[in-house]
Amino acid sequence: MTVVRESGGQVWDDQTLLEWDPAHFRLFVGDLAGEVTDETLFKAFSRYPTLVKARVVRDKKTGKSRGYGFVSFSTPDDFLKSWKEMNGKYIGSHPIKLRKATTELKPKVVTHKSLEMKKRFSPYEVAKAEGEGRNWKELKKKERKHNRLIGLHRVGNGNS
Fold it and tell me: Could you say which of 6, 118, 132, 156 is the most buried, measured as most Cβ atoms within 10 Å of its Cβ?
């Protein structure tokens, strides 16, 4: 089970998204200061009783904060209340910006072979192999055609 992600013509599976309950209500927390940790973020939102999880996104190689994170709530009331009350508040040395998280958390069973095929023939990889320029609009058209041909669809578009 995995979540297949696509962006910029690239395809990858993201096991970290399996840690989040799709039934929960998630906020994107932007403009986080570099010193903010998962614990600091959780503590900042802890006055909302249905807070479930807080995570600062970090660079895999350096371990440094990428300047954003996510918090999740089990009820829509605390989700909306925290959004209204915490937007623009300081966590660490920066005021934060909150938005509704837009990543679809729809895990699906994908065989390793089909995922590798999707990656191998993604528009980005094809363009790289053929030495094409970075015309992403044209690459997206190729990607949609490719997905239809091999029977894979974007996660979250309602197709399975």
Answer: 118
| Domain residue limits at 91 | 21-100
pTM: 0.64
pLDDT tens digits, the chain, 160 residues: what are they? Answer: 566 666 666 766 666 666 778 889 999 999 999 999 999 999 999 999 999 999 999 988 899 999 999 999 999 999 999 999 999 999 999 999 999 998 765 555 566 667 677 666 666 666 666 665 556 567 677 777 777 776 665 544 444 4
Residue position matching structure tokens 């297949």:
4
Number of domains in the chain: 2
136 with 89, same domain: the answer is no
In a domain, 27, yes or no: yes
**Both structure tokens of 48:** 């909302």
Write the CA distances from 92 to 48, 85, 101, integer angstroms.
Answer: 19, 17, 21
Angle between helices 136-150 and 123-130 (to 10 degrees): 120
95 and 117 part of one domain = no
